[in-house]
Amino acid sequence: MSGEALKSTNLRKVYASRGAPSVEALAGVTMEVRRGERVALLGRNGAGKTTFLKIASTLLRPTSGQIEVFGFDVDAAPEKARPFIAVVPQEGKPFFHLCPREQVYMYLRARGLSRETAKARTEEALERMGLTEIADRLSVTLSGGQRQRTMVATVIATEAPLLFLDEPTIGMDPFARRDVWASLRALTQKGSTILLTTHYLDEADALSDRLYIVERGEVLVSGTSDDLKRSVGGTLKVSMPNGAAQIDAFRTFGACVADGIHLSVIVSPERLGELMDLAVRSRLTATVGPVTLEEAFLRVVGRSIDEDS
Amino acid sequence: MRTPEASSPTRAFRGLAAFFWTEALVQLHEELAMATSMVVQVVLLVFVWILNPGLIGVALIGSVVFSAFALGQRVLNEAAYVRIDHKANDLYLAGPLSPEAYFLGMAGGILLIYLGPVVVLGVLAVVVAHLTLGTGLLLVGLSGLVWLFAASVGYVFSTFFRDNRAIWAYSSLFFNVFGVLPPVFYPLGLFPAPLHPIVLLMPPSAAAAILQSTIGVTALSPDALTLAAAGLVVETAAIFLFAIYWARRTVRSK
Fold it and tell me: What's the pLDDT band for A1 if we cut at 50, 70, 90?
């Protein structure tokens, strides 16, 4: 059995359609996910995250390249990889005419789990996702966030060796998102491996052991969240709401990003005092905080994650 | 590493029973759809009763065949709906559930839940048309083939659409051209003779014609009977095998 849970080599996907130019969604993605890791694919809408996940989860054929799940070639022998995986599809919904308890239990039974195991895991997953009180209400009556929690509960209950989650917390409130994060951490402690896509930077920061930033079908950078933050060139961010006009004066301290009249400067702790002196002399209001993934993303991609590709 | 739940991942129909019950539960909660599943059959029976009460036995037999066709055809809408609106195929098929089990579980679950009223129609057909045990069994067997044909066509067709709205028109066309228009609720002899070969090659009207011939309402030549029976069996087997192949193939898009 392979050492990696997932390994892709130079994976390409080109969507061809009649009467329209071909679109290269993946332009040679090489990556690996080790067993027991939580890895995030981070990128803007249209960056290629979902395409990669669909190929990895055996639902889409690549144009070229290779991808393996636990050593099984996903393209050549998808039926061998499928027993090892479970997927929360993007925009997936539970059956509207099943209640969450039925949805999770029946899905586990369809995967071949025994009645006893399915029942126990169903109750555990419903509890973890805060669905116990609404477990017997038809999903058609649930909110969008509750339906999404049902989908996540359905898949985490499988405890499959490799879980793919495509934007798993979309539409959820902050509390529910944290429930999901806690459940995913617990799953990896049990031995599962998780690959998720997200465009929530805080989610990738809080949840992933490593992350890959994807842009226009290519992996631009990979590493831990701390690695990426360090790559920005400093550990502190100084925000000056009216500082954009004086950007040139601050360039010597580190990377500067002007957004309208707002200016952000990345600076090392050693030079913070000097920068704050300049801000005071320039009559600018300045606040200091730690560098976040947002700055790292901006530096690597050159655009905010909220902008569409 | 823990052993995944699929100890025999190549088993063709693994998960069939569980997905069958999943679909049955889904349908069971659709009370309105269950109540309206017999509307067309009842309306057509009323028409026949008003226009020619002597044909009500033939119409009742036809209503059973038609119901089997309609139940199979529900797979078209259901499979498209859960794929397009719910992404349920992604959830289920990126896992150990086999594509065959997904297709047949869905079709079987729908059949089970809506079968009750069809059985009532069948009992009425036996009583009113004085069917023998053999003819009754023939009715069940032929209806089963018609169901399998419609379910297979429905599943294959469902994979061609990206929008549910687009399906409605085709679904209606399929329903009326194969089920309502041809001589299913009325004797074959009332249908224009030059078109008999066509309707004898359409599974619902072929099944109905064989049954009408068996009870003596329609006189079918040996050639016509052979055409209807062979057409029904061969077409059903061919489309069923193709649906199995197609279910496997369409798990992954290109």
Answer: low
List CB contacts (< 8 A) between B15 and chain A. Answer: 109-112
The boundaries of the domain holding residue B33 are 16-249
**Which two three-digit tokens encode residue A25?**
């969604």
Closest CB from A78, A83, A95 relative to B6: A83
Q: In this structure, what token pair is assigned to residue B55?
A: 């044909």
**What is the length of chain A?**
309
Tell the residue number behind the tokens 């069940």, with chain if given.
Answer: B140
Q: Are residues A140 and A216 in the same domain?
A: yes
pLDDT tens figures, B240-252: 999 999 999 999 8
Q: Is residue B5 part of a domain?
A: no
pLDDT tens for each residue of B142-195: 999 999 999 999 999 999 988 888 888 888 898 899 999 999 999 999 999 999
Domain holding A257, by residue range, is: 233-290
Q: What is the ipTM of this complex?
A: 0.85
Question: Which of A82-86, B56-60, B112-116 shows the lowest mean pLDDT across its residues?
Answer: B112-116
Structure tokens at B75: 């797979």
**Cross-chain residue pair A59–B92, CB shorter than 8 Å:** no
State whether A139 and A188 are in the same domain. Answer: yes
Interface check for A116 against chain B (CB to CB < 8 A): the answer is no
The domain total for chain A is: 2
Q: Which residues of B touch A85 (CB under 8 A)?
A: 94-95
Helices (H), A92-220: 100-110, 115-128, 144-156, 174-190, 201-207
Residue B9 to residue A80, Cβ atoms within 8 A: yes
What CATH number did the domain enclosing A140 receive? 3.40.50.300
Same domain? A86 vs A40: yes
Residue pair A179/A141 in contact by the 8 Å Cβ criterion: no
Q: Let me know if residue B37 belongs to a domain.
A: yes
For the full predicted model, state whether its pTM sits above 0.90.
no
